[in-house]
Amino acid sequence: QMQLAESGGGLVQPGGSMRLSCSVSSPLNLDYYSIGWIRQAPGKAREAVACFGTGGRTNVYSDSVQGRFTISRDSTRNVIYLQMFDLTPSDTGIYYCVGRDYLVDLCGDSPSEPRYWGQGTQVTVSS
Q1: Which residues lie across from 96 on neighbouring strands?
Q2: Beta strand 60-61 with 47-51: parallel, antiparallel or unpaired?
Q3: From 108's CA, which of 33, 54, 66, 89 has a CA 20 to 30 Å away?
C-alpha cells in the first residue's frame, strides 16, 4: 500500500518554472515500487509525463515535456519531485503522483496502470 500526497501547484506565468513535491508516507522503502507523474488537462487524454526508469534504464519522459521536466527523489525524506521549466499554457492541468507495486513501466508506449494515486495538485500556466 502506497500513500502519496502532492504539493507545490499553483499559478505560474508562461516561461516560468515550478517544482511539485510528492510525499510518500508509506512504504518507507521504495526500492520495489514504480513511481511517476501523470497529468490530466481539461478536454485532453491523461498523459504520463515523467517516471523513474526501471531495470537500470534512464528516467522516461513524454515527448511534450522532454528536456523541460525532471523527476527526482530525496530518498532520505521519501519525497519525489517534478521540476518543471519553461512552462507553457499547454502544461496546465492536474498533476498526480502515482505508483505501483513492483518495477513496471508507468510511462512510455505501453504504460502499466498505476495502482496508487495522490489527490492531485493543480498547475495553471497563464499570464
Answers
A1: 38
A2: antiparallel
A3: 89
**Cβ pair 76, 64 in contact under 8 A:** no
| Nearest one of 101, 94, 93, 100 to 119, comparing CA atoms | 94
Give the separation between CA 117 and CA 6, rounded to whole angstroms: 10
Residue 21 one-letter amino acid: S
Q: What is the pLDDT of residue 60?
A: 93
Q: How far apart are CA 113 and CA 7, in angstroms?
A: 22
Residue 92, Cβ neighbours under 10 Å: how many? 18
Number of Cβ within a 10 Å radius of residue 103: 14
Higher model confidence: residue 109 or residue 40? 40
Please give the average per-residue pLDDT across 40-63, as a whole number. 91
Q: What is the pLDDT of residue 9?
A: 96
- For 33, other C-beta atoms within 10 Å of its C-beta total 18
In the chain the first and final C-alpha atoms are separated, in Å, by: 40
Which amino acid, residue 107?
C
Residue 68 cell numbers, joined: 523541460
Q: Which spans in 2-118 are helix H?
A: none
